[in-house]
Amino acid sequence: MLERKCLECGQKLSGRKDQKFCSDYCRNTFNNRLNEDATKYVRRINNILRKNRRILAALNPSGKRTVDAITLAEEGFNFHYYTNTYQTQKGNTYFFCYEQGYSKIEGNQYVLVLKQDYVK
User: Fold this and answer.
1) pLDDT tens digits for range 96-114
2) Angle formed at CA 38 by CA 37 and CA 44, multiple of 5 degrees
3) Which superkingdom is the protein from (predicted)?
4) How many CB atoms lie within 10 A of CB 83?
5) Handedness of CA 83, 86, 91, 92 (dihedral sign)
């Protein structure tokens, strides 16, 4: 019979036949190491999205406001990252970072909005 060993530390396993780790520590360490590369990427993207959301929220405390692109850029806003889009019946596209949204209007102007319940 083959001796079963912990996938992380190699310690002999006893107990359930489908057991892969000797402890929660070994299981967590194994999975954290396994997902490390993806986690770094996801963490970087989430940090950008959170920063974008904070910028929009700070510039739009009342729920609707117009700002120029320079103001957003000076704050460090990254236009390449957003969580979702919404297209109105008139054809305007709003980009959202969670509940905070923006849409380009004339020139370098953007209207900042707060997501409404009817926006899915």
Assistant:
1) 999 999 999 999 999 999 9
2) 95
3) Bacteria
4) 14
5) negative
Q: How far apart are the first and last CA of the chain?
A: 56
**Element containing residue 87 per DSSP (H, E):** strand 84-87
Q: What does the alpha-carbon distance between residue 6 and residue 94 come to, in Å, rounded to a whole number?
A: 50
Helix (H, G, I), strand (E, B) or coil at 41: helix
**Tens-place pLDDT, residues 1-17:** 678 999 999 999 988 99
| pTM for this model (two decimals) | 0.72
Instruction: Please give the structure tokens belonging to residue 99.
Output: 């509940």
Over residues 37-66, the pLDDT tens digits come to 888 888 999 999 999 999 999 999 998 999
Domain ranges of the chain: 37-114
Burial status of residue 41 (CB atoms within 10 A of its CB: 0-12, 13-18, 19 or more): exposed
Q: Which is nearest to 26 in space by CA: 40, 15, 10, 41?
A: 10
Contact 110, 104 (CB under 8 A): yes
Q: DSSP 3-state assignment of 61? A: coil
